[in-house]
Design brief:
The chain has 516 residues and is mainly alpha-helical. It has a domain of 181 residues. Helices cover 83% and strands 0% of the residues. Helix 2 crosses helix 4 and helix 4 packs across helix 9.
Length: 516
């Protein structure tokens, strides 16, 4: 077999791995979105805006602390498990847990014991005390969950991640939310309902991680150098993770400091709705980093870029239709779904949705940098973005409220995305995207302008908004097919998915043949 043929086969297999894994993760994400959406809407409608703000503060706190306490080991396992011999895999996993869990316990207990001081003394809002206390005790479980999911990613077993993150945790949360509403509990009850799934998810994820690891082999074959190398790679992610949280979510705490928990509740609704757009890149990035690492380890950088461009094109096509409900009908969407008491966050929702749409595509570059082993560059990017975010938040929130938080968050996302594009260009020698990726976005411009002009004719009810979005999406996809056709890599993906899941395309098969 020729070298070129072997390279093409390896590239095609890598694309199959990413998209098949992404299809599993995306199916799970759809299920999670529906389940989590129901739980969130119940909480938002049942609690006061301040109570929902307290819940938002608590979940943000446990996520950042769980990330920092994991010491970057989740990212380390994602990178090094795919390239490590079976005997050393368990040693890497043991190192990750032994290093991170003690830090998590100290951090969690310290926050829980000082919940009242943090709420009243620092933020000046005692209403969030119950959430800080409950979620403080949850930090060790969140840390174990992060590390275990990182290991599962490293083993490229996407179904276990789906089981834990997209089914078990959301279902447990929704069940507890129903119980809280039935009993008539307040913020403390909802905080517990949101916190318990972290513990359940952590236990199940750890079980699955050790299930997918190779059996215990002779300890003499373990390579301590691999453990040291993974630790050196992982530690920058402490800073990277903390800084990444700051440019993504520090606005919640700054809004609480300058405004109050009611403003946090309104902002939290807008932010959570806009974040739905990012689920596409979440699905692809799950296997993107380990596959990129595997290709880079084999010095197949060109194949790595080919895989990446195919993913970017699909992300552009998937992202465009999601803008319709959030950007064209933000007030109607929020009022219909969460209640009119959150309607003041409509402009914030539109701004966040536009920013997240761009980030949904460009965030895929994170997988390339992780695959290239550039953890320090990722940390540097996040530190710059965090600094910009904090500065803009402190300046804008007192002036224009939660809209300032949205502008600060989006500016930070743009900065980190731009830095990643430049760094990938520097290390690889070519830009990771081109006209192949840009063309679907260019085609969408006149269609989006037309949708904007037609929006006044659409009744502001949720069924009309969903219907209008569906029609736009259909018109857009048909236009992309007619103008651009289907690329050979995409045909290969469609055929592999058809074979994997045994789902015949039927009439769509003629469409694939016609436009490929």
């Amino acid at each position: 077999m020729s070298e070129g043929s072997s390279s093409n086969q390896e590239r095609n297999q890598a694309i199959r791995d990413v998209v098949k894994g992404a299809s599993v993760v995306y199916a799970g994400l759809l299920a999670e979105v529906v389940i989590a959406f129901i739980a969130q809407v119940i909480a938002a409608r049942y609690l006061t805006t301040g109570g929902f703000g307290g819940l938002t503060v608590g979940t943000s706190m446990v996520n950042i602390c769980g990330l920092v306490a994991s010491l970057g080991m989740a990212s380390g396992l994602t990178r090094y498990l795919p390239r490590t011999d079976p005997p050393a895999k368990r040693a890497l996993v043991r190192t990750a847990f032994v290093s991170s869990l003690p830090v998590a316990v100290v951090m969690g207990v310290g926050i829980a014991l000082n919940a009242e001081f943090i709420a009243s003394g620092i933020f000046g809002d005692p209403e969030v005390t119950p959430s800080i206390f409950v979620f403080g005790l949850t930090i060790p479980f969140a840390t174990a969950l992060n590390v275990a999911i990182g290991g599962i990613r490293g083993q490229k077993v996407s179904k276990y991640r789906v089981y834990v993150e997209n089914f078990i945790r959301p279902i447990v949360r929704l069940s507890l939310v129903f119980a809280v509403v039935t009993v008539g509990l307040g913020q403390l009850g909802f905080a517990t309902a949101y916190a318990v799934p972290y513990a359940v998810g952590a236990l199940v994820a750890v079980f699955y991680l050790f299930r997918v690891l190779p059996g215990i082999l002779e300890e003499s074959t373990l390579q301590s150098g691999s453990t040291r190398e993974m630790t050196r790679y992982s530690l920058p992610f402490i800073v990277s993770g903390a800084a990444g949280f700051m440019y993504r979510s520090i606005d919640v705490f700054i809004v609480l400091y300058f405004l109050d928990s009611q403003a946090v509740g309104t902002y939290g609704v807008a932010y959570a709705a806009a974040r739905l757009i990012v689920m596409f890149s979440t699905a692809f990035n799950f296997l993107g980093a380990p596959v990129a690492s595997e290709l880079e380890a084999g010095e197949n950088v060109r194949d790595m870029l080919s895989v990446h461009r195919s993913v970017l094109r699909l992300l552009v096509i998937a992202t465009i239709p999601t803008l319709i409900p959030f950007v064209l009908f933000p007030e109607a969407f929020i009022s219909a779904v969460y209640g009119s008491k959150y309607a003041s966050g409509s402009l914030t929702l539109a701004v966040l949705a536009l920013g997240f749409a761009v980030h949904n595509v460009l965030d895929a570059h994170t997988s390339l940098l992780q695959g290239l082993g550039r953890s320090r560059e990722i940390a540097f990017n996040n530190i710059l973005a965090a600094s910009l975010n904090v500065g803009l938040n402190v300046w804008l929130i007192p002036e224009i409220g939660i809209l300032g938080a949205a502008l600060a968050t989006i500016a930070s996302y743009f900065l980190v995305d731009l830095l990643m594009v430049v760094e990938v260009r520097y290390y690889v020698g070519v830009f990771p995207f081109g006209l192949t990726v840009a063309k679907p976005g260019i085609i969408a411009v006149p269609l989006l302008v037309s949708a904007f002009l037609l929006r006044d004719f659409v009744p502001g009810r949720i069924l009309w908004i969903v219907g209008f979005t569906a029609v736009f999406g259909l018109v857009y996809i048909v236009t992309v097919l007619v103008v651009l056709g289907i690329r050979p890599e995409e045909v290969m993906l469609i055929r592999s998915l058809e074979e994997r899941y045994g789902i015949p395309l039927g009439p769509l098969d003629a469409v694939v043949r016609r436009f490929s």
